[in-house]
Design goal:
single chain, 402 residues, alpha/beta, TIM Barrel, 3-stranded antiparallel β-sheet, 15 helices, Aldolase_TIM, Elp3/MiaA/NifB-like_rSAM, heme, S-adenosyl-L-methionine
Length: 402
């Protein structure tokens, strides 16, 4: 959910979707966007708001507004009702809402849709907001997994990223989650302006020392219009270096692998297949999900739609009994093929060669020769990226869709 929304066709006021394309062919997930942050990080272009930026919306009312959209979604999907296989509370900082609000939202989802018996329910969290009481209440409500925004173990790097938590609070949050029986993931960011490989090594080693179930590591991307982009443009900090980021990725992948973690998506590693994020896998596999909250995007039966961005506009529409949808589209087969290739080749499951357009299949041999695609997997009929290929995944996608 970046700085702008795409263009699209209008969403009917009742939120109804083109009936011919709605079909319960895949599991259904829910993404719940909590758009609140204490401080806006300089690199972030997500649809988030500090207290001073809300204007016309109140954090205290947000859980009730979300329940209105949940009711609307339940009506729209009633003919094709499915229990939720995964729920993900993202942001923003979901744990800025009281745990009782998150619990209430989850209870509403369960009441309107039902949850699979083994449903995965994840909450993203800033380390400073996770206490033993918060973790325990989330676990009692049915949350199964906490994803903690560690980003770095180095204070100087955290300062460059405008992160406000203290590194030692990550371990406290992880322990609180583990004591409550929650699975735990930590997120890292590499390639911050001025970050050295040695500093990155400290963060990787600190993340492994936490003995979590899952680790994500994302290359810093400088988004247009962010405070970080303006600082780089003014020459206050250096731009991230592609070669240094590649070296950081290679180090992280080798170190995580040696510690018993396996990559299953370009930026994600898990101790075992059972520790993989099933919610994120739903995106990469093209499953259905409804995104709740301002600016949230959804994918149901081949229809893509998205909500208005600002919490005030979102609340106003729902209070009037209208859909908060800002636009929708039904991608054509060419767009679907591009998306399928782009998502599937990023995963260790890979993409069956047979799913490529016939004219694109000869490109596989060249990618194997270049060391970007695993030759043994290609012989078996699946495109799986090598470590070098993961660094050049966008180029691989272009080659396979030309």
């Amino acid at each position: 959910m970046g700085a702008t929304l795409p263009l699209g066709d209008p969403v009917p006021r009742d939120g109804s979707l083109p009936g011919a394309v709605i079909a319960p062919a895949t599991p259904l997930s829910a993404y719940v966007h909590i758009p609140f942050c204490r401080v806006r990080c300089g690199y972030c272009d997500f649809n988030t708001y500090t207290a001073d930026e809300l204007r016309g919306a109140r954090r205290e009312d947000y859980a009730g507004t979300l329940r209105d959209e949940i009711d609307l979604a339940a009506r729209v999907l009633a003919p094709h009702q499915r229990p939720l296989s995964t729920v993900f509370f993202g942001g923003g900082t979901p744990t800025l809402l009281p745990a009782r609000d998150l619990s209430g939202i989850l209870a509403t989802l369960q009441d309107r849709f039902g949850l699979d018996a083994d449903a995965e329910v994840t909450v993203e969290a800033n380390p400073d907001t996770v206490t033993p009481d918060v973790a325990a209440e989330l676990a009692r409500a049915g949350v199964t997994r906490l994803s903690i925004g560690m980003q770095s173990a180095v204070p100087e790097v955290l300062a460059t990223l405008d992160r406000t938590h203290q590194p030692e609070n990550v371990a406290t949050a992880v322990q609180a989650a583990r004591d409550s029986g929650l699975a735990v993931s930590v997120d890292l960011i590499y390639g911050a302006p001025g970050e050295t490989l040695e500093q990155w090594r400290r963060s990787v080693e600190a993340a492994l020392a936490l003995e979590t179930d899952h680790i994500s590591a994302y290359a810093l991307i400088v988004e247009d219009g962010t405070a970080l982009e303006r600082r780089i443009r003014r020459g206050e900090v250096p731009a991230p270096d592609d070669d240094e980021q590649a070296a950081m990725y290679e180090y992280a992948d080798a170190t995580f692998t040696a510690a018993g973690f396996g990559w299953y998506e370009v930026s994600n590693w898990a101790r075992s297949p059972g520790d993989r994020s099933r919610h994120n896998l739903a995106y990469w596999r093209g499953h259905d999900w409804w995104g709740f909250g301002p600016g949230a995007h959804s994918h149901i039966g081949g229809v893509r739609f998205w909500n208005v961005r600002h919490p005030a506009a979102y609340a106003q529409r729902l209070s009037a009994g209208d859909s908060p949808g800002a636009g929708l589209e039904v991608p054509d087969e060419t767009a679907r093929m591009l998306e399928r290739v782009m998502l599937r080749v990023r995963t260790v499951e890979g993409l069956p060669v047979a799913e490529l357009a016939p004219q694109s299949r000869p490109a596989v041999a060249g990618l194997v020769a270049d060391g970007l695609v695993d030759g043994r997997e290609a012989v078996r009929g699946t495109i799986v990226l090598t470590r070098a290929g993961r660094l050049l995944a966008d180029g691989v996608v272009r080659a396979l869709t030309a």
